């Protein structure tokens, strides 16, 4: 038994749980509940993620306030998971081996599968709840659950279910994905899946080309309790290659392949209860080293405009439409329920819509409808290229019968433009030069992305390309994943980079990509790195306190000295206070642990060190020599540069020098 007694007990327990108060429309709350689940929700819906070792990362979805103006859908499950999510799970197909996402579980759902290593327990970021696993030290799989707008309600009452698979290995890997959802509408575990024109109540398979934009489920048109909706195609998702509708038991037992019997009712395998589930498959594809594959679907509340009557009528369609969508059309779906006690004769349905849109068969004839019968119809609407679209339009669906009253529903659609990304690039850190070095280095740069278009840019990823001499800091990654960027929204992305022997205004590029082939490359030529001039300074090695009789050492350090051929320099000191003991060669005169020629400085005159050196190697920075002194008197000492000549690239050049006071 899975849901009979367990569900009853869960409902009784939940009667005593304090209802979470949502913060505000679109505002999320998060918490750990009394069952150690991580929750992320708002006024309408909540994501519940299992935080236990057994089944960690598995999730459920529930309503909070549900649909506005409806009180009978509050705090209802959309995916079974009370009090602890475990029945829904995701499978990864890797080179013909099948793995279950998340922490190991000994329970029925996914029991026969293999498991990867859970490398990051569920944690919350701005874009949702993340969980990460690693399979065979090469395939990283990240689950990201976030609250997004439903396509039919226009409200934040849907959950985006995303998996990002990254090949961190050195060879090609063949990867596929299956998402199995244990769907449930309140206490109803067997409501029909309404897919296009079909009301599915038995095992059925749909291939990609057969899938409508979305599917819905409800128990009644005249008085629905909960209306759920999943999205197969269109903006914001990656279409599955095939979809199975079957009983939960069979899908729970089969991690990838399962006992599928077309036409068999959703009777839970091995038991005697109706229990439906859905499994979406993305067929295995080759992923090269360094590549990432993303899979996205949605599930949550559905928006249906309903007018009860003798013939009840419900109508749904996307709340917003842009015709850069992959299939260039959008659906209008009508649900007709004969709620009278007689057979409705010669039922027909008409769609009245603006001439700016093309639609075939505006009138659809159903024929006779028995009492209690529900029929669903679908129109596919396309843009009329000959006419411009209004910002919004209203359409009417009217149902008539010979022997009952007619009924009609009006619904609005807003037409929006495609997404348009505007990008700017800024230095976060103020760069300066200290002792000839760039400070800070590494430093942060920030890209600001704003969607100035009319619709959401889905699943934005952005990659930074740097010119020679700039590189990513340790552990920094070139490609980042900001996620969805709604119309008018602005987000910021930072990278930490390091400069090597470069200065001036440098070019960088940012490659931005989104779902359904969106790509935009932005180039910037004004990343301003301060000029690093050749520079020599005297550096006193650290001492807590200098006393008479102490021995000290001072390095002569060069920065930005690439191309330095030779130097002729005077170093001055006060022999009354310091006694020169020795001058040793610096690391400029070492290569592969071998000593290179170093001309002994002229120290014949007290207080003067005369260095005349040919530089044997090409080097950007290093120590020319180390001066060793004995302190004769405790005083304020100064060591300074005298007349100096520097030859860089066979020409006499200006070099900045800095004296030392201590």
TrEMBL record:
It comes from Iocasia fonsfrigidae. Residues 547-655 form the Cohesin domain. The lineage of its organism: Bacteria, Bacillati, Bacillota, Clostridia, Halanaerobiales. Pfam families: Cohesin. This is Cohesin domain-containing protein. GO terms for biological process: polysaccharide catabolic process. GO terms for molecular function: carbohydrate binding.
